[in-house]
Automatic annotation (TrEMBL):
InterPro entries: PPR_At4g14850-like_plant, PPR_rpt, TPR-like_helical_dom_sf. PPR repeats lie at residues 81-111, 112-146, 213-247, 379-413, 481-515. It comes from Arachis duranensis. Signal peptide: none annotated. It comes from the Eukaryota. GO terms for biological process: RNA modification. GO terms for molecular function: RNA binding. This is Pentatricopeptide repeat-containing protein At2g22070. Coiled coil: none annotated.
């Protein structure tokens, strides 16, 4: 882009207008060289004292990301308008430098709606939604009128934090200002109610909207699918004149999340055959998940082939979904090959646990351990999955070694980790180690959890200490589930306390806890120990 050289007779105002126009063009073309050239000429012609031109220069540097220049120009300006303050405030906020943004905001003589909104937007960008809401409330208390953009952003904050009470108050304010029919504002209201779980008000907002765009429809479809209202979601989808990829993804993902994998595949087939929309990474992630759940390896391979033909980037979430599909659908070797080719980086814990399950099924856990050791981030789920994998393969000493390593190096074990290790001690009938782990569970405040309590009952029973098993059963108190009662009944039966087991079973029935087949086996065993086999069969038919 060339810069016209002003003539000697050109007026001061003409210079300013010319350079302002050039700067606006440079913003559109994102050309930093032109902007710096204009800056040099502004100084050369002594125009750097003019507020209008310096504001344009400040705006240019802010829009093109030259933050150091924004700071320098602002510092050198002899006179600053509210536009000047808002420009540098927005620049700080967008960079996430909120200490500086707050300092600038506090220095503004009279912050306007743009100033306040810039702070709200900045807080939202950092995920500090509570701060954004607090900023909005301060704005109102200071008597500054919000703009449409303010409302859309504070409603996004309310949606993210499910702050329904505040969202309703914002809604009332919007109605008073006559902005409820503005599509972006109405869409933000719709999204806030949907994300906060108020489907009734979401429908009220939707029905009152005279103008609806695709975002309106997609928000309602997504909400219905999320709440399991699949027929309502599909009905709205079918009303849309031209569904976009977000619409298709909302329907497909909704069916997959609700366990209707076959229906998700049907919708996907309809999309391929009747829509101009092309599957994106979200579509393919959901479809691969459906194939995994159905263990449909053949279709999963076809989807993979489509991705290769369409040159779709197989990375991130799509790669994890692909690995998950192959691991769950019986293609563990292919899943392992994908990991070898693409590397361990960004392998999520769901994909890893699926790989682990696949290796356990074929009785070869070593590749899973290699992957586990190579993971950049190993959370408690990954550690627990690996420990469980060893236990399921009968490699009890390896499971215990890994647990000890987890205690030394890894994250704090949770109740599922402790339950898994207790099952190992149950298999080994190792009372001493089991008691040590019980003490660890107490220290971690996990001993009262259902999974740990049930595992402790089984461990103590198999290790010969029915007294400790009884004690744990009593300590679980009101948290007992069907498995808790079943574990205790079986423990009593195995230790010859048949009468106690039958009495416990009767108590279980009085509490309206429905027995399962394993419970009945325990009762029959208890009755056989006290010569009441016929009574045991009768109880099975109660």
């Amino acid at each position: 882009m060339g810069i016209t050289k002003p003539s000697c007779t050109t007026s001061y105002a003409s210079h300013s207008d010319l350079y302002a126009d050039v700067l606006q063009s440079a913003i559109k073309s994102r050309d930093p060289f032109v902007g710096r050239s204009v800056h040099a000429r502004i100084i050369k012609h002594g125009l750097h004292l003019g507020v209008f031109l310096m504001n344009n220069l400040l705006n240019f540097y802010a829009k093109t990301g030259s933050f150091s220049d924004v700071h320098c120009v602002f510092a050198e300006m002899p006179l600053k308008t509210i536009f000047s303050w808002n420009t540098i405030l927005s620049a700080y906020a967008k960079r996430g430098n909120f200490e500086a943004a707050q300092r600038v905001f506090d220095e503004i003589p009279e912050p306007d709606s743009v100033s306040w909104t810039s702070m709200i937007v900045g807080y939202n960008m950092l995920g500090r939604f509570d701060n954004a809401i607090h900023m909005f409330l301060r704005m109102i208390s200071c008597g500054v009128s919000p703009t449409q953009f303010t409302f859309t952003n504070v409603l996004a904050s309310c949606a993210a934090t499910e702050a329904l009470d505040i969202g309703r108050k914002v809604h009332s304010f919007i109605v008073k200002l006559g902005l409820s029919s503005v599509v972006p504002v109405a869409n933000s209201l719709l999204n806030m109610y949907a994300k906060s779980g108020d489907s009734v008000m979401a429908k009220v907002v939707f029905d009152r909207m005279r103008l609806k765009d695709k975002s309106t429809w997609n928000t309602m479809i997504s909400m219905h699918m999320h709440f399991g209202q699949l027929d309502l979601g599909l009905a709205l989808f079918q009303e849309m004149i031209d569904p976009d990829i977000v619409s298709w993804n909302s329907i497909i993902t909704g069916y997959t999340h609700q366990g209707h994998d076959v229906k998700a595949l049907e919708i996907f087939s309809l999309m391929l055959n009747s829509s101009s929309s092309k599957p994106d990474k979200y579509t393919l992630g959901s479809i691969l998940s459906a194939c995994a759940n159905l263990e449909n390896l053949k279709l999963g391979k076809q989807i993979h082939a489509y991705m290769v033909r369409a040159n779709i980037d197989i990375s991130g979430a799509v790669r994890n979904a692909l690995i998950l599909m192959y691991a769950k659908a019986g293609g563990i070797e292919i899943a392992h090959r994908i990991v070898d080719i693409t590397g361990i980086s960004n392998l999520d814990v769901i994909a890893f646990t699926s790989l682990l399950d696949g290796f356990v099924k074929i009785g070869d856990i070593n590749p899973a351990r290699d992957i586990f050791d190579s993971l950049e981030f190993r959370d408690v789920v990954a550690w627990t999955a690996m420990i469980v994998g060893y236990a399921q393969n009968g490699l009890l000493s390896d499971a215990l070694d890994l647990f000890r390593k987890m205690v030394r190096e890894g994250p704090k074990p949770n109740n599922y980790t402790l339950a898994a290790v207790l099952s190992v001690f149950s298999s080994l009938a190792s009372l001493g180690h089991g008691k040590q782990l019980h003490a660890t569970a107490i220290r971690l405040q996990e001993a009262s959890s259902i999974s740990v309590g049930n595992a402790l009952i089984t461990m103590y029973s198999r290790s010969g200490s029915i007294r400790d098993a009884r004690k744990v059963f009593k300590q679980i108190c009101s948290n007992k589930n069907k498995l808790t009662w079943t574990c205790m009944i079986i423990a009593l039966a195995q230790h010859g306390f048949g009468k106690d087991a039958v009495e416990l079973f009767d108590t279980m029935l009085k509490l309206d806890i429905e027995p399962d087949q394993i419970t009945y086996v325990g009762v029959l065993s208890a009755c056989s120990h006290v010569g009441l086999v016929q009574q045991g069969f009768i109880k099975m038919w109660i």
